[in-house]
Each structure stands twice: as C-alpha cells, then as structure tokens.
Amino acid sequence: MTWHRNQETLREVGNDPAAFKERIAKETRESLVKDPEFRKQLLADLRKEAGASDDGNGKPKSEFKLPRSLNGALGGTSRETVAASESDDSQNGIFESAWR
C-alpha cells in the first residue's frame, strides 16, 4: 500500500518538487484574481494601507513648507503693498506670493 501511495504522489507531483510548488502557486494566484470577493478585500486593504499616512480627514501627517521668497525681503516691495494673506505661511499665501 505504501508503494502505491508513493507512486500516486510521484505521478501527481512529478520528478521536480520545485516545479510542482510553482505550478500550485500560479494556479492559486490565477484563481484568486478571478475571485470577486478576494478582489474586493484586496482593494479595501490597499485603500486602508494608502490612507494610513493621513490623519483620517484627508490631510497628511507630515507637512512640507516651502521657504518664503526672498524677493519681498530684499526691499523690493514695502510691507504696505503686500497683502496679509501673502505674508502667512499657508499654502494659499505661498501660492499668492509666487504669482504676484
């Protein structure tokens, strides 16, 4: 009986166990790609992973602030002519300062 079981296993697996493992992995990947429930779960997990970098309201945890332009600091304009929104470090202020 043992010999027969071994021969059946050898017939199914073949002479190369590594190739058998690769074939099983390939078949598993192909079946998972076709499974709509697996795809939904995968997309949900990827979205959760991508959203892990923000604080839940769409804003990233880290903030990159650009330095203010030196053009206004070198005496090219007076403080009175610069709008108040251009002198703060907000994104809108930096944008307005760059395009004036």
Largest sheet: none
* Overall body shape: rod-shaped
Number of helices: 5
- What proportion strand? under 5%
Tell me the count of domains: 2
Order of helices and strands: HHHHH
Number of strands: 0
What does this structure look like?
It is a single chain. By secondary structure, the protein is mostly helical. The chain folds into two domains: 61 residues, no CATH class; 37 residues, no CATH class. 58% of the residues lie in helices and 0% in strands. The protein contains five helices and no strands. The protein is rod-shaped and about 85 Å long. The chain starts with a helix and ends with a helix.
Layout of helices and strands:
Blueprint: H1 2-13, H2 17-34, H3 36-51, H4 84-87, H5 91-98
Characteristic key phrases:
single chain; 100 residues; mainly alpha; 2 domains; 5 helices; 58% helix; rod-shaped
Quick structural overview:
The chain is mainly α and 100 residues long. The protein has five helices and no strands. The protein folds into two domains: 61 residues, no CATH class; 37 residues, no CATH class.
